[in-house]
Known about the structure:
Elements: H1 36-43, E1 47-48, E2 51-52, E3 57-58, E4 62-64, E5 69-70, E6 75-76, E7 80-82, E8 87-88, E9 93-94, E10 98-100, E11 105-108, E12 111-113, E13 115-117, E14 122-125, E15 128-130, E16 133-134, E17 139-140, E18 145-146, E19 157-160, E20 163-166, E21 174-176, E22 181-182, E23 187-188, E24 192-194, E25 199-200, E26 205-206, E27 209-210, E28 214-216, E29 222-224
Parallel strand pairs: 1-4, 2-5, 3-6, 4-7, 5-8, 6-9, 7-10, 8-11, 9-12, 10-13, 11-14, 12-15, 13-16, 15-18, 16-21, 17-22, 18-23, 21-24, 22-25, 23-26, 24-27, 25-28
Antiparallel strand pairs: 19-20, 28-29
Amino acid sequence: MSAPIFAPADYLDLRESDHPALFHGAIQAWDILSQIGYYLEKRLVPANLGRVIGQPVIGDQVYIGEETVIEPGAYIKGPAWIGPRCQIRHGAYIRENVIIGAGSVIGNSTEIKNSFLCNGCQIPHFNYVGDSILGAKVHLAAGVIVSNLKLNGDFITLRVGDQVLTTGLRKFGALIGDGAEIGCNAVLNPGSIIGRGSLVYPGVAWRGILPARSIAKNATEVHDRTT
C-alpha cells in the first residue's frame, strides 16, 4: 500500500505567496521545513523597505517589504523574509528561518521559528508557531500554541487509517490549510494537519488530521462545516 500524500496544493494556494519556488519538488508539504534555511541563504538580500518605529532589534539577514511596519520592542533575529504590508507588533519574536507573506500580522508575545506563512496570516496575540506551514489567511486566536516537539523527542508520525506515516522530522508543528481558524488557547500537537477552511474550537488540544471544511469541537468530536 502506497504512503498517503499530503501535497502542498491540497492545502495551500501558492499564488498567495511570493515563494512558490520553495515547494518545487516537495512531495509532502512538510518537506520544505528542512529547506527554508537553505532557500533564504541563497535568495535573501537584506533590505528594509518598510517603516521602523522606535528601536526594534533587527538582525543582519532580514528582508522587510514595502509598507511593512515594525513596532518598538519587536525582535527579528533572522534569517527572515517579511513581505509587504505586514505588521510586526511590539513584543513579537521572529527567530531563524522564517518567511512571512504579504499583509500578515505578527503580534505581541508571539514567537515564530523555522516556519512558512502565506499571505494574510493573523498571529496577533500570545502565540507560538514552531516548524510549521500556514496557508493564506490562517488565523490563530489569542493563546494558540503550535507545538513542534514530542516530549520524548521521537520522530513525528501521522496515523492515516491503519497506516503510520513517518515524517522524518523530529520537529514539525502543523500544516494548516488556507482560511483555517484556530480558537483561543487551542493547542495543535506535533504533526497536526488542518484542512482548508476548518475550525478548531477554543481550548481544544488537537492531534491528528482534520479534514477540509470541518469543525473540531473537541479532540474526538468533528463535524462537517457544510452541513
